[in-house]
């Protein structure tokens, strides 16, 4: 499995009357780029906002560190840490 960052764009009428293109990014794990594209297109938010894909980055390394994906079982208890704007100000 490979890690992909998918950069999407969309126009939202509630933001500046839809004049500017907004963007969001999704991380997806898939066997290849074609399957990554398919997974993104199934996301409800992607469909609801009529998003399009601006680009896909296959992430194999960050700097001098390689990325290794390991399958987790639901009982592993791992979760992502999230830090808010206020949390970061205190660091």
Summarize the structure.
The protein has 91 residues and is of the alpha+beta class.
Would you give an account of this structure?
With 91 residues, the protein is α+β, with helices and mostly antiparallel strands. The protein contains 3 helices and 5 strands. It has helices spanning 33-41, 44-48, 85-89; strands at residues 2-11, 21-30, 52-59, 61-62, 65-66. The strands form 2 sheets. A 3-stranded antiparallel β-sheet has the order 2-1-3. A two-stranded antiparallel sheet has the order 4-5. The model has no long low-confidence stretch (mean pLDDT 94).
- Order of the strands making up the biggest sheet: 2-1-3
Provide mean pLDDT, rounded.
Answer: 94
Report the radius of gyration as a whole number of Å. Answer: 16 Å
Structural class of the secondary elements?
Answer: alpha+beta
List keywords for this structure.
single chain, about 90 residues, 5 strands, globular
């Amino acid at each position: 499995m490979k890690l992909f960052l998918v950069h999407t764009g969309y126009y939202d009428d509630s933001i500046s009357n839809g004049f500017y293109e907004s963007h969001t990014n999704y991380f997806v794990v898939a066997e290849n780029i074609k399957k990554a594209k398919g997974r993104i297109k199934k996301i409800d938010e992607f469909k609801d906002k009529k998003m399009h894909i601006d680009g896909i980055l296959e992430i194999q390394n960050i700097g001098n560190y390689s990325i290794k994906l390991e399958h987790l079982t639901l009982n592993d208890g791992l979760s992502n840490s999230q830090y808010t704007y206020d949390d970061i100000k205190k660091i």
